[in-house]
Fold these 4 entries.
Entry 1:
Amino acid sequence: MKLSPRDANAFFRKPDPGVAGLLIYGEDVMRVAMKRQEVVAAIVGPEGEAEMRLTRMVGGDLRRDPAQLLDAVKAQGFFPGPRAVLVEEAADGISAAMKSALGDWREGDAQIIATAGQLTARSSLRKLFEGAKNAYAAALYNDPMGRAEIEAELARAGLKNIDREAMGALEHLARDLTPGDFRQTLEKIALYKFGDEAPLTPDEVTLNAPASIEAQMDEIFHVLAEGRTGDIAPVMQRLTAQGVAPVTLLIMGMRHFRTLFAIASAPGGPAQGIGKLRPPIFGPRRDRMLRQAQSWSSARLEEALKLLMDTDLTLRSAGQKAPQMALVERAFVRLAYLGRR
């Protein structure tokens, strides 16, 4: 039977003991591992592995010895409590062994949890779990984490006192990070807030968020919009060392200045304009973008966008022979002086 994403998350948190097996599959290995860890912990508890109520096996080994799966499902442990058999790296080659184990499964036997990578609709293993009356198949997609998943991760990390803007910043972070990286970031925030009863703020989210090349690219555009000509060279040196392409810088720069133009040209003024942005901007970045938009006129922002587009066309022209990064840096210096007017 297929599980919808919402039903799957509910099952991961509280598995039905009357279900013989669960197949979790998806392209994102970390996402699959996190859900596998959650459902196994929900079945056997924190001491399940120590009490030998969890049996692990790999799909390749099971293909060579199919009988070991049914043996593990029927085995009786020394300790009381529910048991589970975890089959990792499952593939179509173990479909026959899975079919036999699911067919012979009785209440009280160990539940089967199988994990796999991306499976096509023609996969025999996927068809088996989707068609079985006593088993489920849960597909995990590379979609951004939803509000319910974020709240579950917050509860897991022990983070409770979160204001509205901080939650918005966390949702924005969840869209940019993989689930595994997001979980690690929440654990870092929990350590940072240990013993601190004050509400979590957007500044604290930003402080603990992982640094990225995109964040450093954002910094160069803040430098330009604020007219800090002296800071251009060191930031550009770091970006060049990281292999950022000149065209990428121009594309990102146009995005930044288009956002400033949308804020500055709003009928109700920049303060109203920044509130209408989608997706919204939170925390210190919001304040910084608002200050920049207030210091630029719509006319000068149009001039800045024209300069960036002209430079982009120059880079893409067939007869252009000058060093591309030098042309970009020259355009950036002109932008910074434009911002100081």
Entry 2:
Amino acid sequence: MGRGEAEQRGPVSARTLARFLPALLICTGVCYDVLTPAAFTAVPFFTAAPLIAASLSSLRTTLLTGLAALLATYAVHARSALVPDTDAVTEIVTVATVAVLAAGINRIVRIGDQRLASAREVAEAAQRAVLPEPAERIGGFEIAARYQAAQEGTLIGGDLYAVQDTPYGVRLVVGDVRGKGMGAVAAVAVLIGAFREAAEQEATLEAVAGRLERALVREGGRRGGIAADEGFSTAVLAELPHGGGTLRIVNRGHPPPLLLLLGDGEVRPLRAPEAALPLGMGELGTGPDRAAEYGFPSGATLLLHTDGLSEARDAHGRFYDPERRLAGRTVTAPGPLVDRLAAEVRRHTGGGMTDDMALLAVRRS
């Protein structure tokens, strides 16, 4: 059996055991009463059964479990005397009371589950609205994107990506907004909205970056407080001309994209010729953006990512190095590439990611 099968069967076996645990407790209680002296009581087993069923099963199953525990309690006492004594009546009432409480607990748990499911549906809808999954093919390029939040149960955070087919070519952005929480999510929404509008209207990639800069500054001013002085976002913008074998990149303080070449598996980091400050920090003195141009041969794949990939650490503090990990690999499609990277980072960190991660891969067919 492979590791993947074992991981899949493990949770299934645990759930199966949990489902039958109330019945197992009742049977154990009956055996305990039969095999021990009369002074010993099996009531703890009978009361535990409906309480466990309340958190794991439906209301109907919880009620049936409580009834079964009540009948088992009566049966073990009827075995020694047809007319229950005071101790027997007390134990029967105790089990009946716990069974009623278990039914109430079950309803509370189910209402909580429904509210949680509703909240997750809202969060998923927000993710689709803010970070929609791009089409698999845009403007003659194969596209794939993945987002992985560091906080368990969270679907969106401060990382962003967007793809737009424009008259000037396919334009992309990947970024990482400073901060966490709803403030970061609001900034993500502002940047993506500004990018989609600017990508269609601006003739140059430098002008698109300028629009994003101004949008982020306006957002910081609107929010006020620390966001007005320290709100910023690293970002990398790319432009892929239709039918051309080149690409243009503007990098604003972001990890460099990686170009994966078909054939020998060479990986080229596309580092910016000149360092530039992140978006939102233009007033500190960064010069005008200058787009760098690179070759983009047929079959090559461009990988844009946030530092959640390159700064993921294992238990010993070692960083995940995507350039080294991808060297020598044959990349045939963007989808499997981002899926493999996401899985490798989860294994590398042991599931304990400390930062969100956004991946955007583009392959020139």
Entry 3:
Amino acid sequence: MIIAENKTNLLAGKQHFEILDGLRGIAAIVVVIYHFMEIAITDYNKNFLSHGFLAVDFFFCLSGFVIAYAYDSRAPHLGWLQFVKVRLIRLHPLVVIGSVLGLLTFLFDPFSDFYPVYGFGKTLFLFLASVFLIPYPLMPERYTNLFCLNAPAWSLFWEYIANIFYILILYKLNKKVLIVLALAGAACLVYIGVKVPNGNLGGGWGGQNFWDGGARVLYSFTAGMLVYRFNWIIKNKLGFPGMIVLLLAAFLFPYADAYNWITEPIIVVLYFPLLVALGAGTAVNPASKNICKLSGEISYPLYMTHYPFVWVFLTYVAVVKPGVDTLWSVIPVSVIFLIVLAYLVMKFIDIPLRKYLKAKFLT
């Protein structure tokens, strides 16, 4: 009870960055569209949203900023165990929900029949690995994703790693050491850009590019922390519409094999921290406030529930081979359906479950 009361007191008077919440939701929608588009148009040079996967790096940078802002002053009083419980209650219900949806689509996908191939034992291991965020790149049919039932869970795996390092080490480090860590992460990203064909920084999701995820979170999470620690909050009047334009510019930037190895590191290393600094420094007007709030609330449920249905879309495209006109109808309808589903999951499952867990374990 004392811990809970101290936590409340420490939060009192904290500013809430509504614009950053809104941008998180926009980035989540971009990820969903990108995951459909990369199946519909496999040539990145012809895909208008080829950089959509960089939304994950934006999420990591936002996370570093928000975690440092919320916990730098609280961590010594909160303790590592309480911090872990708070983060698990915030994040893990949707990990489980996404795993359940992934299992259901694995079993009942009308365009594939994987269960006879993998059987009860391997299917059970796939599900448990997804629930407990244990990388298990078993399925070549799904490109040896670390989490074959719900692919985006790979970034939650690295988010958990970053959170653990934060409460054990990072919050204690001074700014100079954080700068060194961020520079090391940036160097890793540049190396990946040079090493990977066409300079694509979209690794971390599969057994073949596992450590790329570590590099991505190392840089972006520490960069977000540094934006907070140095108070790089740039006052401006862009508002939510202006920030949306700037964020979408990163994802819509033309993809070109010749120079992609340098453009993506620039976007991640320089542009995303700038966007966080700008987003934290602009005020939300009354007309946008509710939109930003809903956008932020729905972002994580959307991110963690959409991909099981993308797997179904993948097998649908492989088996049915629909025409372009059909895909341009199916994709928008699917995106709208998934946004509505995410809202329903948030309202009727995630929020009530988190309220129950908070009452049981944080009071």
Entry 4:
Amino acid sequence: MDVLVIGAGIVGLAVARTLGARGHSVVVAEAEGAIGTGVSSRSSEVIHGGMYYPAGSLRARHCTQGRRMLYAFCRSHGVPHARPGKLIVATSENERAGLEGIAERGQANGVEGLAVLEGREARALEPNLSCVAALHSPETGIVDSHALMLALQGDIEDAGGAIAFHAPVGAIRRDEGGWRVEVCGEELAFDAVVNAAGLGAQAVALTVEPYPSERIPRQVLAKGSYFGCLGRPAFSRLIYPAPMEGGLGIHLTLDLAGRMRFGPDVEWVDAPDYVVDAGRAEVFAHAIRRYWPGLPDDVLTPDYAGIRPKLTGRGEPAADFLIDGPAEHGLPHLVHLFGIESPGLTSSLSLAEEVADRLVGAEA
């Protein structure tokens, strides 16, 4: 088939790569001038283990499977990555039950190597840590997300596919045997369309005729800011607090150079805003000192911010990924991806396989 993938973030690129590897002719339409300029360039670059998500959910399945696929892809393509592991910490006894619940979900999801540690055992691994217990996830890692996207782009192009930059998509309509898509003001014909537009996925879906607008879920935006940390790293593993509403809490991650970075927090916003408020450093410091009481004063520096395209808002249970394909909406060769936030990077290669399967799953 001739397939149009809308969006050149990590998930869109992974989908295009998988479709190209299956012999389809693929074009990726990207409104901006480079790959991964949206959600994909503003993540924590963590390869997640898969222990947070309810058993049987798309998040659980694709995170666990995608993690394994991603490590293999990074090895085979020379993408810089590391597997330092992480500790999810309980800083008080009333958080211990939540920690054990995460461990149980992880075991149900098939996450390898999980172990609940007492505080003294965790401090033997990380002497600067303060906690009463911790869950050790040795499979958690970090990756150079831009190098990952470049490797995906390379595979797309090696298979004969192409990425069109500065190519916003307009109206999309079904005609006999295929889809007519307005790209850069010109109407082009495709056999199939995948909407992987991230923050723009709902807006793209609204342009599709005759896709029912009532199927489009609302989008809720959660801003997450990150702060860098001056000085030498105090930890060798990622450190996560107990999860908070809307996210996993202000955690400590490391980049591939060993630099410490903290975030993201959660701010519910009405429109994308990537300015990091330096005044939030005090809130960050208070949260960080719960598990790292030795955080020095005045070492946090504003770094960057990202926006999560969530499907649920404040006070609501977290939604699963939403993949709407032909079997669900009845239109052939059309797949929409909604609410692909964390762990979207980790899940990307596994999600791509499911999208490719669903795209052809209801052929006439």
